[in-house]
Amino acid sequence: xxxxxxxxxxxxxxxxxxxxxxxxxxxxxxxxxxxxxxxxxxxxxxxxxxxxxxxxxxxxxxxxxxxxxxxxxxxxxxxxxxxxxxxxxxxxxxxxxxxxxxxxxxxxxxxxxxxxxxxxxxxxxxxxxxxxxxxxxxxxxxxxxxxxxxxxxxxxxxxxxxxxxxxxxxxxxxxxxxxxxxxxxxxxxxxxxxxxxxxxxxxxxxxxxxxxxxxxxxxxxxxxxxxxxxxxxxxxxxxxxxxxxxxxxxxxxxxxxxxxxxxxxxxxxxxxxxxxxxxxxxxxxxxxxxxxxxxxxxxxxxxxxxxxxxxxxxxxxxxxxxxxxxx
Length: 327
Hints:
By secondary structure, the protein is of the alpha/beta class. The protein has 13 helices and twelve strands. Helix content is 43%, strand content 17%. A seven-stranded mixed β-sheet has the order 7-6-8-9-10-11-12, with helices on both faces. It has a five-stranded parallel β-sheet with strand order 2-1-3-4-5, sandwiched between helices. About 6% of the residues have low confidence.
């Protein structure tokens, strides 16, 4: 090849490389999200941290990433059809807000990566083969903390001296409900308490559930982790206040909205951290090899305004342990 031809070929390659690189960088990635609520307004406190985490990693909505939202309004049987919609729209990755959404998506695809933002024990739920090596097209973040329910019951014992019966509010449609309830009953027995299971499948069942609680002669209540219960937390908090019932919750947004005590994992933080997993997968990491992230920190928030309304004196030792006191 003559010298002029060689120089022309090199120049063409040099020009082609940055164009190809820019084209790759400019590719818009589509993140499909399966929400359990009815609207994004109800989930904004979760989507906000997620989109913030994505921005911190260089993803600009409408620029190099778009979010395709679907909602089921707490009707979990709709997850299957909503997941199918996302798959038909050729999303690059699916974020599942709850385990049921992840399971529905997995039943339809073994190729599109799926990240669950919240979960109980993902191994017991059958979402992954193991925490360290999920083994399929799912990975994500867990809210599972084995001793959490026992801690909630201990707090009830601290703030209600002499309590013997404690209500356990649960959503029986939650795939983790049976396991969580057994753990709660076991923990209660260890502490010398009698656990009274109270079920509610929807907000419409809350009044009946609280009537049952009023007739059960319980001294307090704990609320098991569940997306439907969390989304409708204001109704639970209002009914607890009306019935003068001390309640210990998990996520801190319960306390922010008037719940007596919240002790648990930061759920919005999980959505923020989900961005890192999404980023790794979009850059080529395999879900089968990305370990499920487990909670590393619990926070205790005490709402003294609510304690005053309920006529409860929060022990100084509990206040001293609190990460935040709302006065």
